[in-house]
Amino acid sequence: MARRISGRSHGDPRHADTRAKVKDDYRPSRDEILRYIAENPDRSGKREIAKAFALRGDDRVWLKDILRDLQDEGLLNKERKRLTRAGAVPHVAVLDIFGRDDDGVLLAHPSEYTGAGSPPVIAIRVSRGAGGPAPGIGDRVLAKTFPTDDPSGPGYTGRVMKIFEKRSDAVLGVFRVLKDGTFRIEPVERRQPELIVDKEFQNGARNGDLVEVEPARASRFGLPRAKVLAVLGSLSSEKAVSMIAIHAHDIPHVFPADVIAEADAVKPATLDHREDWRDLPLVTIDPADAKDHDDAVFATPDTDEKNSGGVIVTVAIADVAAYVRYGTPLDREALKRGNSVYFPDRVVPMLPERISNDLCSLREGEDRPAIAVRMTFSSEGRKLRHSFHRVMMKPAAKLAYPQAQAAIDGVPDDKTRPILDGVLKPLWDAYGVLKRGRDSRQPLELDLPERKILLKPDGTVDRVIVPERLDAHKLIEEFMIQANVAAAETLEGKKEPLVYRIHDAPSLAKQESLREFLHTLSLSLARGAQMRPSQFNGILERVRGADNEALVNEVVLRSQSQAEYSPKNIGHFGLNLRRYSHFTSPIRRYADLIVHRGLIAALGLGPGGLTQQEADRLEEVAALISATERRAMAAERDTVDRLIAAYLAERVNDTFDARISGVTKAGLFVQLPQYGADGFIPVSTLGGDYYIYDETARSLFGERSGKGYQLADRVEVRLVEVAPMAGAMRFEMLTDPKPLPGSKRSFHKAKGRARASQSRVGPRGRRR
What are the BP-aspect GO terms (predicted)? Predict the structure, then answer.
């Protein structure tokens, strides 16, 4: 029987003597390991667990096997290099407070929970005398969480670190005046019901206004009622669709007066604490419609005889830290926003225009402060050394991607012709060198084209295009990646705190799910905890040009973890880099501004460096900016859905070529490749057969025929219903089901898997 070790002593140097007295043949029980991991979320790496239980030699091999078994059984998850209990709440999490217990203690759920079953309950601890606003029901907070030992109470307690802006129970909708003079609220969320507004609760709203309403309790008969709380704007105006997303996702979009006043009072930076680089012909290369320019580049061959064929690459980044100092109104607002948000019809910037589009934007022919990194690469693309400099620069030219590419392709214009030989050709030569390094590194290479919506002057959709992927894009991308790596290496070498950009390897569960799926296509994925991007690239290369290329790319993408920010480094799996930060876009990302401040402090580059107070908050800041990034992505996606739905609203009953983008028990999601828009086909409309969902094969197949539909199938569909403001479309399937890949034997296995899965689902869809 395993000897008990107090959870308080685990990994604690104060209890080193206790660990030393453990017998050599001691091995903890599975329950003790699980308990230790639950009680020590910050010390749950494999080495730390072994140290806590004084395991050495063969016992460490035994521990590795036990931990693998616990992961395979679904009892543990691996996040970064640490293990967590399945369904466990992160040590720093965003929580929604929903009520109180009988003793008046506030209770919360995680705002994002992906585990099985109901989300865990967290009891909120409020420190007396801490000052500041106290959290209440309905608040969203950032909190540190701690597991409890009380089996009859909440599984966690939470200590509030920050209270987000309060959200009421109000919902958004479009105010509509019907022909009979009655008022309705058209929903802007797919699951939101239509509402009735009585005249006394109109509150000045007019037809077509976007309004915030408070729903009343639903009556037994008819639609529920609501009252208008506020009119947010008219949908007849330009930029109306993005306004819905801005309000629906609580994105701050109006700068407070003190922030604008501070920005307006800022004076341009001077040469103090800076090197004069204004004679260096750095150029900016950006999208043609870019309004702010935060990076400029230059390259030249290395003249050192010891580095034959090598290059020197210079990347200069706008010095936002010169203007935005920690703790000021500008800084607090930038952190609150976390990042700029990009909609097809507008940008919600992280910083006021005076900073983002004027003082910090690297404008052609104008003096601008910057932090630059000069990197030397060998002929094989391996970085040999680098150095950071705080400089004053003057961009020699502002170029668009197609413009720079055309010059290299032999069609220069009046702006690119004078700098073709001295600036552009050396840049492309340097990219050729860096590309060798990238090819050797083998980052994950997914082929997923991005679509861009072009609008008419009135804000409606003109057309949807897939911009050509040029070498000019790849050049800037690789230069920026190397600059980001250099920043992380410098700060780590100087032992300066920083926020890393991290990307974990796919979890074992996702790996196994992908492995099972690939098996249905007669493809194999090697087993092993230490996956490499090259293993996925090998799979993608095998299906290049095949009918199932899009399918495999999509499933491999869905198997990947989500990138985020953290002060704890685990590397970046997708880029196949051991250390990586964001340094190159401080105008639009707060994470980059933190890295700039860290470099200034670590290298003694003058004022505006990272303060100790800021360094102490990096865990909290990383969680905040990771959340604002996800918020921005959701808002941008919702806006595109609404724009495309509105664009296609006049084409109900038209037929379209589509691709199946999602498969669920309820039906099929289909995407129109021409538009990048998604819609839904309910399973009940697929025909007379009874369709079974096979999660492994990502398919629905008929119980009698064995024929069906699979993720990434190309199909023909008819548009039957559109809800433009909700961004929702419903389609009808016109393509007949097909025999699914594999033999009859594999079909019956799939049928058995599906039935087994269904047998585990209770009456309300909850797994038992």
Answer: mRNA catabolic process
